[in-house]
Amino acid sequence: HVQLVESGGGSVQAGGSLKLSCTITGFSYASYQMGWFRQVPGKEREGVAAIDSDGSTSYADSVKGRFTISRDNAKNTGYLQMNSLKSEDTALYYCYAVISWNYHWGQGTQVTVS
Fold this sequence. Notes:
Layout: E1 3-7, E2 10-12, E3 18-25, E4 33-39, E5 46-51, E6 57-59, E7 67-72, E8 77-82, E9 91-99, E10 102-105, E11 109-113
Parallel strand pairs: 2-11
Antiparallel strand pairs: 1-3, 3-8, 4-5, 4-9, 5-6, 7-8, 9-10, 9-11
């Protein structure tokens, strides 16, 4: 079955950088969208960035110019490079993939900016 494994979260000072990774296993489809949402306790989950299999990307306004999403299709792995981090970026980040119209989610990784 499809599994998403995330890594790369942690704690960083404001202005610093982190890079999240998300590796997808258990499927053989070539075309799928993947990306990240984030959630802060008491708030709704927010879409952060997404990338399609053709490389087209989209970003939340709050992260444009600071975050970059990319993917390595050969490794079924996506990346979220986060630069110029702010305290308001603190959240639990979840990667996702839409495969055959179904959403699959990673376990979540905490990003804390102080």
